[in-house]
Amino acid sequence: MCGIIGCVGHGDGTLDVILDGLETLEYRGYDSAGVALAGDGLDVRKKEGRLEVLRDQIEADGERPSGEVGIGHTRWSTHGPPTDANAHPHTDEAGRVAVVHNGIIENYQTLRDELEADGVDFSSDTDTEVVPHLLGAFLDAGMEVEEAFRRTLDRIEGSFAIAAVVAGEDRILGARNDSPLVLGVGEEGRYYLASDVPAFLEQTRDVVYLDDGETAIIDADGWRVTDRDGEPVEKEVSTVTWSAEQTGKSGYDHYMLKEIHEQPTALRQGLSGRLDELSGRVTVEELDDVGTPETVHFVACGTSYHAALYGVELFREAGVPAQAFLASEYATGPAPVPEDGLVVGVTQSGETADTLSALREAEGRGAETLALTNVVGSTAARECDHALYIRSGPEIGVAATKTFSSQLTALNLLVESLANGSPGTRELIAALRDLPGDIQQVLDETDAEAVVDEYADRESFFFIGRGPSFPVALEGALKFKEITYEHAEGFAAGELKHGPLALVTRETPVFAVVTGDDERARKTIGNVKEVEARDAPVVAVTDGQSDVERYADHVLEIPETHPRTAPMLANVQLQLVAYHMADRLGRAIDKPRNLAKSVTVE
Ligand code: F6R
Question: Which residues does residue 100 pair with via DSSP β-bridges, in sequence order?
Fold first, then answer.
């Protein structure tokens, strides 16, 4: 995800505080960076690439930007590729206003059309650029800065954390909605705004956490928080006590846990602007020129392959024949390429060698290809005919967590857009809208640690599920084995009795994903009874609709939801089980042995 820092009160040191702050946010991943300093005028410098490139450019320019107040940004592309022009800060045409933004402005196209009709020239592909133009227009209309900022916020919809500076003004204005923004209270008239505390932790540990709908104003005289009407809001100053080692992880012990907890935000980003509840339709801009395929083939590896299996289930339900292939097998065997079909490469990094080979193989045989990926401008995104971005934000932990959830969410969007208007879309849209909140509930109420306490001494674990919960069982086992180093296997529940049941004993806990109360659930409960009869401990991951709890030793509960979103909630419980088990066993959770985040060899 992108990073924001802003500071007042550092005089000549403003630029260094901003660049150092951005450096502490580097771990989040980014593809371009920029700064804007405001004094009498405005000085904006921005570059595609690493922060080093920006630093070198500033040195090469000769004159360092100066100003009493400044903002900086590291960008992770969502609208438009990583280029100098798309890097933040963005300005109005007069170069009076500079803005940095995290999140997605859902109504940017409408606003852009409106502004262009008024003669405004845009210089980037970003959604963000509408903000400085709006703010500039309100200032031109004679409005006072804070009023103009509030009026701008009234016009924009979506998720955002924003910081803005105006030439000739010694203050920074900030606002948040569904994207984090924190205020730092330093000494001697020094104040900060940032997307993450680590950005200003060198300067102060005193922090004000802003809430959605709040606006913050910092200047050399102090800090204020108001609501959207400009009415003052009383806020508490808290003191951060994290160790330096924990700062990049925002206080979490591991990136993996942080990323598990980022899932509600990641999914909000992935859904932003793509669900239209009024019309009951899914609208994904990137898919405008993709027709309904006759057949769909997925190619993917590891966790992304599990996402692909879930995608197969969705396409088949929508009446489109679909199949998932392990990319490493697809590329080396006689690859079946469907006529009039679509080949979808599911790859969070967009750089996995096996998946790229499979996609190239399909492309070479004339198939239409689509990359479902997290990385704008990645090889898969560039080489495929189409790209659908999951917008999860960068993932640092080797074990994929939030990107898997974002992939499943994006697959729902893919299927609904290609088979739009299918009966049941409205219910699905409502469930997707509620999904971030439902995941938050799972995170807040999970009993995963209690389950781990009970079974920490076991050496073999099984995971079972059916239908869309089968890939979640496979993923539960993969996550578990890759970070705990204990033996774990996932099975289609009905397959147990065809072999694996021989391994089931009182020593082997079985995690059963049972959601809903349909025939699939009843059959899975039948399989649960089979393992119970062999004295195996059963952990049911369930929404409580069936009577599976009767046969379970432990229950990991999830809220009741749509049949397609239920497996996604179950998956979060299984992520937490894997994480807490690995933590208890003292494993290298963020960097499991022998594994790499991006596998660029075949
Ligand atoms: C497991 C994991 C891997 C990746 C696989 C594909 O936690 O992360 O199994 O899913 O290496 O990676 P991408 O999605 O980048 O193609």
Answer: 163
Q: 248-437 has which CATH code?
A: 3.40.50.10490
Helices and strands, number each (H, E), in the chain: 18, 26
Distance 301 CA to ligand 1 centre (A): 6
> What is the distance between the alpha carbons of residues 538 and 547, in angstroms, rounded to a whole number?
13
Per-residue pLDDT, 1:
61
Domain boundaries, the chain: 3-245, 248-437, 446-602
**pLDDT (0 to 100) of residue 246:** 64
**Cβ(113)–Cβ(180) under 8 Å?**
no
Q: Is the CB of 396 under 6 A from ligand 1?
A: no
Q: Whose CA is nearest to atom 3 of ligand 1?
A: 302
Judged by DSSP in three states, 496 sits in helix
What does the block give as tokens for 59?
């040195």
Q: Which residues of the chain have pLDDT under 70?
A: 1, 28, 242-247, 420-422, 600-601
The residue nearest atom 15 of ligand 1, judged by CA position, is 349
Q: Coil, helix or strand for 584? A: helix
Listing DSSP states for 393-447 in one string gives ----SSS--HHHHHHHHHHHHHHHHHTTT-TTHHHHHHHHHHHHHHHHHHHHH--
Residue with tokens 């998956």: 571
The rounded Cα 528 to chain-centroid distance in angstroms is: 34
What is the pLDDT at residue 498? 96
User: What's the whole-model pTM score?
Assistant: 0.79
According to CATH, the topology of domain 3-245 is Glutamine Phosphoribosylpyrophosphate, subunit 1, domain 1 (3.60.20)
Residue nearest to atom 11 of ligand 1 (CA): 302
Q: Which atom of ligand 1 is closest in space to residue 401's alpha carbon?
A: 7
Catalytic amino acids? 2, 597
Which residue, 37, 9, 26, is CA-closest to 185? 9
The answer to whether residues 512 and 539 touch, using CB atoms and an 8 Å cutoff, is yes
CATH architecture, domain defined by 446-602: 3-Layer(aba) Sandwich (3.40)
Atom of ligand 1 nearest to the CA of 403: 14
CA 276, 282, 284, 290: dihedral to nearest 10 degrees?
A: -150
Instruction: Single out the residue of 3, 493, 30, 447 nearest to residue 199, CA to CA.
Output: 3
- Sheet of strand 222-226, all strands in order from the earlier edge strand to the far edge: 90-91, 97-105, 158-166, 171-177, 215-219, 222-226
Same CATH fold assignment for domains 248-437 and 446-602: yes
Residue 277 in tokens: 């509840």
Q: Is 37 helix (H, G, I), strand (E, B) or coil?
A: strand
User: Sign (positive/negative) of CA torsion 1, 481, 412, 289?
Assistant: positive
Ligand 1 proximity of 359 Cβ (cutoff 6 Å): no
* C-beta of residue 362 within 8 angstroms of C-beta of residue 368: no
Q: Cα 130 from chain centroid? A: 23
Answer for the pair 180, 186: CB distance below 8 angstroms, yes or no: no
Report the Cα–Cα distance between both ends of the chain, in Å, rounded: 29
Question: Are 507 and 459 spatial neighbours (Cβ–Cβ below 8 Å)?
Answer: yes
Structural contact between residues 58 and 64, judged by C-beta atoms closer than 8 angstroms: yes
Q: Which amino acid is at 285?
A: E
